[in-house]
Design a protein that fits this description.
The chain is 34% helix and 16% strand. By secondary structure, the chain is an alpha/beta fold. The chain folds into 2 domains: 131 residues, Rossmann fold, CATH 3.40.50.2000; 179 residues, Glycogen Phosphorylase B (Rossmann fold, 3-Layer(aba) Sandwich), CATH 3.40.50.2000. The protein has a 6-stranded parallel sheet, with helices on both faces. Helix 8 links the parallel strand 7 and strand 8. The radius of gyration is 20 Å and the shape is globular.
């Protein structure tokens, strides 16, 4: 039985960023249990470092204190020795405390810290490195997402049905926070489709309202299951992404990315780290204005992404492709 439970009910990208921590914890004491949102379950249910995934619908059917107490009772019955709280939210601290878990570990300065028995410093340049501070041992910081044979077949079928038979570039126009969405993806798709197939990935509804007129194929595969999306990403020559879960999904597949940053910045610790990855932004005195993005621009102009040109992104994609080809020679 697992002796450790990790409570990580933040965004999908945060769940992927937690996978090095899970591997480090499992290396020391065997596979761990993890509490996540229902949407994040597919990201961890195939992970060998995870024994059991506990879905917790904190924003839906399990919203509120009654549901939290109910889940705490279920966790208490498992008699966990340690709770690790990478999110550090007050809710996760209350859950671990109510579950009667004697050892509770979080970052110092978080909302959950006062409910914990151990408070660790947040050190490291990248979030995946920082999270390893919550483990008693270090380890690799590569993100992990295990795809199944069914996921691979589903990706092949989706691409074939869309008419994608050759090389393609992935575009991921979405993000959970509106201010992190670059507004020119349709124009970029039209520009890239002159030379290569283009595939759109992301959550359902994150594609284009109107497909661009382009000489080549632009295929909307938004709405695919997460691991199937990852299998498609793994087949792409490169991906253009916002600061979003799709950035971290691409990191887990090893697909080179051109990451577009507006209100946030890679220096905050959530950027890409691959040798062929590129980040693009507009130099403005007002940015970064947020760690995770907001619903609207505080200044009402959104220049940080609106002023990032299609030509600049297209040329950077070409640079990434050229670099990849040079490495393969």
């Amino acid at each position: 039985m697992s002796r450790t439970v990790v409570v990580q009910t933040a965004w999908l990208g945060d769940t992927l960023l937690t996978t090095p921590l899970l591997a480090a914890l499992a290396e020391g004491a065997g596979p761990v249990d993890v509490v996540v949102t229902p949407a994040a379950v597919p990201l961890l249910e195939t992970n060998p470092a995870v024994r059991r995934v506990w879905p917790y619908d904190k924003r839906g059917g399990e919203r509120g204190p009654v549901a939290l107490v109910r889940l705490a009772r279920r966790l208490r019955a498992m008699r966990f020795a340690t709770a690790v709280l990478p999110q550090g939210s007050l809710r996760s601290g209350l859950l671990a405390r109510a579950a009667g878990i004697p050892r509770r570990v979080a970052f110092a300065g978080t909302a959950a810290a006062w409910l914990c028995t151990e408070r660790r410093p947040r050190r490291g340049r990248h979030e995946a490195e920082r999270l390893l501070e919550l483990a008693d041992t270090g380890g690799p910081t590569a993100l992990t997402l295990i795809r199944t044979a069914d996921d691979e077949r589903a990706a092949d079928i989706a691409l074939a049905r869309a008419g994608i038979t050759g090389a393609f570039i992935v575009l991921a126009p979405g993000s959970a926070r509106p201010t992190k969405r670059w507004p020119h993806y349709a124009a970029l798709a039209a520009a890239l489709a002159h030379d290569v197939h283009v595939v759109l990935l992301g959550a359902a509804g994150e594609g284009f309202a109107h497909m661009p007129h382009a000489r080549g194929t632009v295929a909307d595969l938004t709405g695919l299951p997460l691991r199937v999306s990852a299998a498609v990403l793994a087949r792409g020559r490169a991906a253009v992404v916002n600061d979003s879960a799709m950035l971290h999904l691409a990191q887990a597949t090893g697909t080179p990315v051109v990451a577009l940053f507006g209100p946030t910045d890679p220096s905050l610790g959530f950027g890409p780290r691959g040798p062929r990855d590129r980040t693009l932004s507009v130099a403005l005195s007002c940015r970064p204005c947020s760690t995770h993005g907001d619903a609207r621009c505080p200044l009402g102009q959104h220049r940080c992404l609106r002023d990032l040109s299609v030509a600049r992104v297209r040329d950077t994609v070409q640079d990434v492709l050229t670099a990849k080809e040079a490495l393969c020679v």
